[in-house]
Amino acid sequence: MANAWSWDFWLAREGGSYHLFFLQASRALHDPDRRHYRAGIGHAVSTDLRHWTQVDDALVHDDRPAFDDIATWTGSVVRDPDGLWRMFYTGVGSPGDGLVQRIGMATSPDLTTWNRHDGPLLEADPRWYERLGEAPWPNEAWRDPWVFADPDGDGWHMLITARANHGPADDRGVIGHARSADLIHWAVQPPLTNPGSGFGQLEVPQVEIVDGQPVLLFSCLRPELSAVRRADGETGGIWSVTGDRLLGPFDTSKAHQITDESLYAGRLVEDPRGQWQLLAFHNRGAGGRFVGGLSDPMPVRLADGTLQADTTMAATC
């Protein structure tokens, strides 16, 4: 978009149309590093994952005082059994000075008009997860909810970018977990992965079954890798690891990097032909400058147990 930066995103599919929800902030801020605390959620529609028509924005920050009165961040959308669309998203607000992340919900009958649910649905549980000030980390990580139906029909699961409450400060990144029977009342669970795998945080998680194999997708930039990984010369980007089930176990110490930092916050989506594609946002360009904007679809496949993407197809939409 000419007048705004766009970055993290998620999708919903209704009939032959894909609905893209994405973070955006005005370029009038001049410095893209300021975008996070000005973020709202935009909305665009496509039939082919390549050509997008922007429509009315989905959600912006709430009035004060509220858990999301500063900005609304990354989430996911599912349709409940009664046909109502539910968007789960991250909120940051004046309670906590924008440093405490909580998860909220909005609903829509048509993917266009969204109405907030009162208050946050859930926040980090100190039984398992790090809270603000418990380690030299700049915020309380509890964001990027990815919601999906239990594969055995037993309610719903939420994956969350979170940090464990123990271990070296640069190596506490885990995939948080919550469960619900009705998409409204949620119970926080222990994390699905272990700290100590070399990541300070595992952002924008997603699980899908690709070529019959459960795959966990997440992203991490180089500054948030552990000191050990950085010393080994590893860089950031989009990562994946396979598991036995959609709920793991996933050994993220064995995660495989599928893009470098030029692409970030990847999402797996089936195209109109039923083929899996990877979408991402363009993160770093020449000189390390922030770019923003959605990639074209990149075909993916499993080879030797690892997810591989044809990143040569990632031209900006």
Describe the structure in your own words:
The protein is mainly β. It has one domain: Tachylectin-2, Chain A (5 Propeller), CATH 2.115.10. Helix content is 2%, strand content 44%. It has 1 helix and 20 strands. It has one helix at residues 227-231, and strands at 4-14, 17-26, 40-46, 53-59, 71-79, 85-92, 101-108, 115-116, 142-149, 156-163, 173-180, 186-189, 203-210, 213-220, 237-242, 256-257, 263-270, 276-282, 298-303, 306-309. It has a 4-stranded antiparallel sheet with strand order 1-2-3-4, with no helix packed on it. The mean pLDDT is 96. Belongs to the glycosyl hydrolase 32 family. This is beta-fructofuranosidase.
Unreliable segments (pLDDT under 50, ≥5 consecutive)? none
**What's the total helix number?**
1
> What structural category arises from helix and sheet content?
mainly beta
Task: Name the shape in a single word.
Answer: globular
What share of the residues does DSSP label as strand, in percent?
35-45%
Question: What's the CATH class label?
Answer: Mainly Beta
Order of helices and strands: EEEEEEEEEEEEEEHEEEEEE
